[in-house]
Amino acid sequence: MDYISSTYDLIKRYDVRARKRFGQNFLTDPRVLDKIIAAADVTKDDFVLEIGPGLGTLTRALCDHAGHVLAVELDFDLADIIEQELIPAYDNLELITGDILKQDIGEIADQKNEGHPIKVVANLPYYITTPILMELLETKAPVESITVMVQKEVADRMMAKPGDKDCGAISLAVQYYADIYLAANVPPNCFTPRPRVASAVIRLTTRQTPPVETKNEKLMFGLIKAAFAQRRKTLVNAVSGSAWLDIDKERIQNAIEKMGLSPTVRGEKLDLAAFAGLADHLS
Predict the structure, then answer these.
(1) Whole-model pTM over 0.85
(2) Would you give the end-to-end CA distance of the chain in angstroms?
(3) Is residue 14 classed as helix, strand or coil in its secondary structure?
(4) Which alpha helices (H) appear in the chain, and where do they start and end?
(5) Number of neighbours of residue 151 by Cβ within 10 angstroms
(6) Are strands 178-186 and 199-206 parallel, antiparallel or unpaired?
(7) Closest CA relative to residue 132, chosen from 72, 218, 220
């Protein structure tokens, strides 16, 4: 099926204008569409949650490959188009008009997929990508994988290793919860209107077991957040000066010394195992 022609037809018939406040850019390259479907590895056995279906370009492809698709769209006008054009055409498609951050993913999995993990596929507005991803990962929602279009520099940060200039708190957080795979780089000319930045398709496969163990996961992420919030400072100064951690300088100095780390080490040099160990010492 020519999914892209269907999108152009809807843009013309409904006089659709991309809304900047929703960060809308409509995918118009069939090759990228194929790469998303391939990366998500969608089969007729899968229940797919699509976030931000827009004009339904990706939605149509998902419906042709998946057993069931639940699309969640925030824009009432676009949701109305999907309701009129796609719902009658696909008996395996459901639509929720609303904010994905207000949906209970666990309840969706229980009610719609007999409690089995679901697959998430999304072409998200870039301003909301990170909050949605972290909500799905941190709440440990019953999600098998998340295949999503993101800004290229965000993909680079997610895949960065300790010591890389792109490495940050988001890098360690994503890598703690999921294995990350870069499926495709996507130039701006694959969308209408053209965004000002390059994009990438990534797949996050959620981990059954974290790559490191810690007695205090909350403290570990607090340390990571503090370290990268003031990455030019030493780890001692970043942690002891943190507004959300109640850890004095002597205590963090002693913990760092016990771990055999340099007293002047910066947090950006530490990997997940080191942050987990530090949290355990402080606990």
Answers:
(1) yes
(2) 57
(3) coil
(4) 3-13, 30-40, 57-65, 76-85, 105-113, 126-138, 152-159, 169-177, 217-229, 235-240, 249-258, 272-282
(5) 19
(6) antiparallel
(7) 72
